[in-house]
Amino acid sequence: MVAKAVIEQRCRDYYWAAIKVARQTWRMYGQRTTIACDEAEAEGLLALTEAATSENYDPSRGTFGGFAKMAVLRAVRRHCIKAQRYTPVADVREQDAPREEDAALVLRMWAARNPEQAERLFEYTDGEAVSEEAVSALSAVRKETGISGYALRAHTTRTAARMLGINERRVRALAESGDLTGRRVGGQWQILVSSCAAYRERRVIAELKRRPTIAAVARATHTSKQHACEIAKRHGAQIRTRGRPESVDSQLVLSLLTDKTQNAVFWRRGKPRIGLIAKAAGCSPRHVYRLAKV
Questions:
Q1: Which CATH class is domain 4-83?
Q2: 273-292 b/e with 16+ CB inside 10 Å = b?
Q3: Where do runs of H (alpha helix) occur along the chain?
Q4: How do residues 100-127 score in pLDDT, each as one tens digit?
Q5: Residue range 75-92: average pLDDT?
Q6: What is the pLDDT of residues 135-162, one digit of tens each?
Q7: Distances (CA, A) of 5 to 11, 16, 93, 222, 278
Q8: How would DSSP label each residue in 232-284?
Q9: Is the pLDDT of residue 229 over 50?
Q10: Where are the domains of the chain?
Q11: What pLDDT digit, counting tens, does each position of 37-67 carry?
């Protein structure tokens, strides 16, 4: 049996590698399906956790990194190929699909009308081997409600905590307060993958108002810079282009350095206040000193 410390170390070391492989696999197999990139990432992290706990790894055949990446690739590819069997229904338009806050109510109403098929759906949400009855039940719920299979996938509290960068106690508290959507199975919370993705996006939006850079937002929300940048663009945030920022208005600095009468606030005892001018112009005091010598 693999030690717990070894499992945690493996998951930490290959976290971003698993996400990268999951995204690459999704680009190859999942772009023409209903699977989102976030779902592929979640599937890759689940495969990484299973690979870390697996006893099938043989060190003589290569490093654990190659073993884990291959496991992630196979899991995401299998998930994408399985989703290709679900053809979209023509009469369910995108604008007619239920909103996120109404999806749980729509699903409960469908389960009340079809109790036998609802029981079969537990095979899909539990992540075990999926039978033909579960596949037919999933197709039925998609046709009647417009809810995709992504909305039915669930995480354990440990996997959700690793995905969101918080501890398991915090995940349980969020589930009980309603910030994360899930259900109790045998006393344990099962958190919906779509709910984890929505919560992480809300955190990114909140951090964008407090953090100065995308890198700081990504570190605070336990996500990649690319994903944080995509969320920022979707919500209309101003993203500075790569490279040096725009040059400082040197004419403004020179006017503050030369015109004592109109800019008396920036002068004291016949000398310019370098620090105050730099702050007003948005540049460094060294730049003001350089223009003052000119």
A1: mainly alpha
A2: bbebbbebbebeeebbeebb
A3: 4-13, 15-29, 37-53, 64-83, 100-113, 115-125, 132-145, 157-164, 168-177, 193-208, 214-221, 225-234, 250-258, 274-281, 285-293
A4: 445 555 666 666 777 776 666 655 555 4
A5: 64
A6: 566 666 665 555 555 555 677 888 888 8
A7: 10, 19, 48, 21, 52
A8: HHHTT---PPSSSPPPP-HHHHHHHHH-TTTTGGGEETTEE-HHHHHHHHTS-
A9: yes
A10: 4-83, 98-193, 198-234, 250-293
A11: 888 888 888 888 888 888 888 888 888 888 9
Query: Which pTM was predicted?
Result: 0.40
Q: How far apart are CA 26 and CA 79, in angstroms?
A: 10
Give the relative orientation of helices 214-221 and 225-234 as an angle to the nearest 10 degrees. 110
The encoded tokens of residue 99 equal: 């909103």
Provide the b/e sequence for 232-265 (b: ≥16 CB within 10 Å): beeeebeeeeeeeeeebeeeebeebbeeeeebee
- The encoded tokens of residue 207 equal 């951090």
Per DSSP, 51 falls in state: H
pLDDT score at 72: 92
**Structure tokens of 16?**
């971003």
Q: Which of 196, 170, 168 minimizes the C-alpha distance to 182?
A: 196
The Cα 264–Cα 260 span in angstroms is 5
CB atoms within 10 A of CB 183: 14
